[in-house]
Amino acid sequence: MTDYVEKGDIYFFYRPKVNTQKVQNLDDVQRLHLVLVPDDGDKARLFLVGKKRMPEIMQGKPTSTAREWMMNDMTGKPKAIGEALAPLEYETKTKGEQEQGEAIPVGEGRYAIFMRDNSSRLAYRLSNPTPPGKAQSQLGILAEASYIISVRNPSLDVPGFTDAKPNYPKHLEKKFADKRWLDIEDGKFLDYENAQLLLIGAHDDLSEESVSITGKAALFKTLGLNQREWPTEALKGGELTEPQMQPEAKAPEGDRSKGGERGGKAAISTASAAGITKSLKGIDFPCDKADLVKQAKANQAADDIIDVLNEYPNRQYDTMADIQKALGEIR
């Protein structure tokens, strides 16, 4: 009998490099995202996959080289994850205005996390596209696959992994003890931003796992995306495509004469890690505390977020992970 940890929808997105006009292969891709939406709650997790592709699976068996890291980039309501995948426009100090295209959907299906042979596994089966095409091949996305999956102990150094750490509660931290890697017997390990995971390719035929994956995914409905606006060539036909949408335009309040500013500067209302990240949309790295406060105000962030940013250590921040790490230090 299979011991299931959780089941849900799985979605794959790739985001092309900045100002990319044509996407032809992996060299034109900036990052690969994987989204897990569990069935048993109103939340979703957005993961960043290392080296822009899923681990290779060799002849249906695990191999020591078919492994890759994955990190939680954001946890929130499914529609908040959808918003994070939208296009954006930002200013840089060296290149001026830059446009980052939307993350393009490239796969949807169902997944299960379960225990097997003294290890935790992540398995999925695509419902779109069937069969997978060139886009999926470039990104290592198969029609169905399983991976050994484990979560990194944030208190121990692991070569090749970032120093960013998830803000785990004490009861989860204790489960690591002195282990460097831990099986995922509790899905809550996946919920915390900066949680770092290791994936090892296992099987490309789910009959090898004797796992039951049923149901139908609904990417656009679940993430609150307008299917008529988003490019679907990769999702429906397996064809690599480039961004097609424009960042949201919004006229600055009190100045109707200018053509508007792009970036969707809606007020951010919560000082969570996800709220902080959204409030700093468009921030140029490296930056300091004053830059953080300035960017959040420009994005019309709520007062509680501004207050939290004013408590940040006055030092240089090189990545969004550095900013999230600092949030854990002051809480």
Model description:
Helix content is 20%, strand content 29%. It has 331 residues and is an alpha+beta fold. The strands form 3 sheets. The protein has an 8-stranded antiparallel β-barrel. A two-stranded antiparallel sheet has the order 5-6. The chain has a two-stranded antiparallel ribbon with strand order 12-13. Strand 7 (104-116) and strand 8 form a beta hairpin. The chain starts with a strand and ends with a helix.
Structure summary:
The protein has helices at 78-84, 134-139, 170-176, 219-223, 233-237, 273-279, 289-298, 303-310, 320-330, and strands at 3-16, 29-38, 44-49, 67-76, 88-92, 96-100, 104-116, 119-128, 144-152, 181-183, 196-203, 249-250, 261-262. The chain has 331 residues and is an alpha+beta fold.
Topology (elements, then pairings):
Layout: E1 3-16, E2 29-38, E3 44-49, E4 67-76, H1 78-84, E5 88-92, E6 96-100, E7 104-116, E8 119-128, H2 134-139, E9 144-152, H3 170-176, E10 181-183, E11 196-203, H4 219-223, H5 233-237, E12 249-250, E13 261-262, H6 273-279, H7 289-298, H8 303-310, H9 320-330
Antiparallel strand pairs: 1-2, 1-7, 2-3, 3-4, 4-11, 5-6, 7-8, 8-9, 9-10, 9-11, 12-13
Helix pairs in contact: 7-8
